[in-house]
Write a structure and sequence with these properties.
The protein is mainly α. It contains seven helices and no strands. α1 (11-18) crosses α5, α2 runs antiparallel to α3 (49-75) and α5 packs antiparallel against α6 (133-159). The longest helix is centred in the middle third of the chain and has 29 residues, at 100-128. The relative contact order is 0.19.
Amino acid sequence: MFELKYHTPPEWAQVVLSDFDAFLIDHAAAEKKASGMAMSLISHYPNRKNLVRAMADLAIEELIHFKQVLKLIQTRDIELGPDSKDQYIHQIRAAFRKGSDVFFMDRLIVAAVIEARGYERFSLVGEALPAGKDKDLYSTIAKSEEKHKNLFIELAHEYFDKEDVNQRLDEILDLEAEICRKLPFRAALH
């Protein structure tokens, strides 16, 4: 449906693989937060029936991903640790506009862009991992993220004028590309 304007270099995946334990802990936190975000949308927009249905499914799917990553973490005998603030998420959420309708539109579009970034980066991890269960898991999770990115744009098109959504998406993609260019590579999703 749309393409990111910044493409993560393959070297990022090498940074991830150099400290895969840290990446797993960050990934688990991201899945928990994604599930919570879906539940938050349900709480804030209970009258949007299609959104509620889609977010209920998404929240469950993200928790399943959390459980899959948790299994990898426990297999490696490492602990989750506390969640840390994600600078990427903090910076992109700063794009939210004030006003109920535009704020809702921005939430959907930003969620789509975050999922698109997840799709790209989980794909890179899947490609970089040696053959086996971990590689298969990351390839599967990447495919889910791709579906999620499309879901959020489909929902935005359902609730708002398609041209307005596409214009705002283009603006947010520019912002997101600039954020990604400036963030250092680390063993984390963002």
